[in-house]
């Protein structure tokens, strides 16, 4: 099936017009002038970030208006992505949720031992180092303290339902290594599935493998395994429903990343599945998890505002001279955080997004925040953890991005390796599922600013002295002329972590 973007009248549109339509739909009932302004924007690719920034302030204002805005946007996004039969991705997920017998489950139990949470490290000291270097927010330290003080905390009876579970930053393998149980949704790919099956057998966990009934004739499990997140959305919904009947709690986790406009479609599939689950599964039997991006428009605690301005004031004379040179070219502009009043009190608003990611990426990733906030309002346990810039294979395969990542350390920004990112995110999820004091706990989710910002490992992209957008070109140039720094990437048991202490 081919899915396309539609306008409210059902006509096919491109990804740019679709993004405008979604944002306009979000605000048309409460702020019609803003909606008309969005639709009239003729230079969307240049100016889209400013509209997301303005919208983000509404999301944390009046609770009734915010809920209307976010629900309208999510409904439009999932209903207006349709296949050639004019079936929406949301409709397919709803239909699949009541269907039975579409997927066979094959369990693969590992024979290994549970891995330590982090090798050769005191968790609290490790997180304290990241917080002290502005790589993470203070709640990350509280999370790691909780795990340090409660070493018996294990995945236990929770089943991780990993959407795009074979993605490089998916938590599936780490959850298995920690002794957990994982149901993986990933497209058919014999090589990738064989690697995952081998990992599962070596681990202390159990992997649940989906097999479409139609694919059951192939001899090897890795040849039969797999569900495509978009094409098989109905079958995935059916499988999720069937598993939820026998599991004590299912943790639906979203890991999909696909470049370009397809990211919106993949995210719409994830959201449609989450919406169906939230509607039909009891709150006590469902938790939701996102691996969120730091490159978003942000509303967070006031202390970030103060830290950004403090770091800009504290620059030395040589740094000021360097910055003056680069400002001639529109780079290294001063951070401009804004204090706003939210339902959680005085908070900071700023733009940490990157035009290099594009409007499709920002719409897809920001919509995760919409769903997290809506789901929390509905009483679900929501683990919304912000991941650091990650040195993934796709990043490292691009030479210019290698230079960028080398140069980021000059601004105090430290990407994490893919392995370190996965383990950090798995540990934060483990804490959020078990700690009643976590921002994720339903009893605490009334503070929606903390819900979506407190548990963040952003690699310092949120605590810069500069506008986030204005450092990337300079970092690339500086990285081109720099030697490889073994501390520039945070690895598991790396020199960079020893620096953190």
Keywords:
single chain, 501 residues, alpha/beta, 7-stranded mixed β-sheet, 3-stranded antiparallel β-sheet, 14% strand
Structure overview:
The structure is a single chain. The protein is an alpha/beta fold and 501 residues long. The protein has a domain at 4-79. The chain is built from 21 helices and 15 strands. It has a 7-stranded mixed beta sheet, sandwiched between helices. A 3-stranded antiparallel beta sheet has the order 2-1-3. Helix 12 (262-280) links the parallel strand 8 (249-254) and strand 9 (286-292). Helix 3 packs parallel to helix 15 (359-377) and helix 7 packs across helix 18 (418-434). The protein is globular. The protein starts with a strand and ends with a helix.
């Amino acid at each position: 099936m081919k899915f396309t973007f539609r306008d409210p009248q059902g006509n096919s549109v491109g990804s740019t017009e679709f993004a405008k339509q979604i944002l306009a739909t979000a605000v048309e009932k409460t702020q019609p002038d803003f909606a008309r302004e969005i639709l009239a924007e003729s230079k969307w690719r240049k100016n889209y970030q400013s509209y997301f920034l303005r919208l983000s302030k509404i999301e944390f204002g009046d609770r009734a208006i915010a809920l209307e805005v976010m629900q309208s946007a999510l409904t439009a996004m999932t209903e207006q992505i349709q296949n050639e039969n004019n079936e929406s991705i949301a409709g397919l997920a709803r239909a699949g949720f009541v269907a039975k017998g579409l997927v066979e489950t094959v369990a693969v139990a590992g024979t290994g031992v549970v891995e330590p949470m982090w090798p050769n490290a005191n968790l609290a000291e490790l997180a304290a180092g990241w917080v002290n270097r502005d790589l993470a927010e203070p709640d990350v330290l509280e999370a790691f303290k909780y795990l340090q003080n409660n070493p018996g905390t294990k995945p236990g009876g929770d089943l991780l339902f990993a959407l795009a579970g074979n993605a490089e930053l998916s938590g599936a393998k780490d959850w298995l290594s920690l002794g957990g149980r994982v149901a993986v949704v990933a497209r058919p790919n014999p090589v990738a599935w064989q690697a995952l099956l081998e990992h599962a057998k070596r681990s202390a966990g159990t992997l649940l493998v989906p097999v479409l009934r139609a694919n059951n004739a192939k001899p090897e499990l890795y040849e039969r395994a797999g569900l495509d997140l978009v094409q098989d959305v109905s079958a995935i919904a059916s499988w999720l429903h069937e598993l939820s009947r026998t599991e004590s709690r299912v943790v639906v986790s979203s890991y999909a990343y696909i470049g370009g406009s397809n990211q919106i479609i993949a995210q719409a599939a994830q959201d449609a599945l989450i919406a169906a689950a939230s509607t039909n599964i009891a709150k006590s039997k469902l938790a939701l998890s996102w691996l969120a991006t730091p490159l978003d428009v942000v509303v967070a605690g006031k202390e970030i505002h103060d830290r950004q301005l403090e770091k800009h004031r504290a620059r030395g004379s040589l740094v000021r001279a360097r910055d003056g040179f680069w400002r001639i070219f529109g780079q290294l502009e001063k951070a401009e955080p804004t204090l706003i009043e939210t339902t959680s009190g005085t908070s900071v608003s700023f733009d940490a997004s990157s035009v290099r990611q594009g409007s499709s990426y920002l719409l897809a990733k920001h919509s995760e925040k919409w769903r997290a906030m809506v789901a929390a309002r509905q009483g679900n346990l929501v683990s919304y953890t912000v991941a650091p810039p990650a040195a993934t294979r796709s990043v490292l395969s691009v030479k210019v991005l290698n230079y960028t990542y080398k140069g980021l350390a000059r601004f105090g920004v430290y990407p994490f390796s893919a392995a370190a990112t996965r383990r950090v995110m798995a540990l934060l999820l483990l804490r959020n599922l078990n700690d009643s004091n976590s921002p994720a706990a339903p009893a605490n989710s009334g503070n929606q600013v903390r819900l979506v910002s407190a548990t963040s490992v952003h690699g310092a992209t949120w605590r810069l002295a500069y506008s986030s957008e204005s450092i990337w070109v300079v970092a690339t140039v500086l990285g081109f002329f720099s030697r490889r720094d073994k501390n520039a990437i945070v690895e598991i048991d790396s020199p960079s972590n020893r620096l953190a202490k």
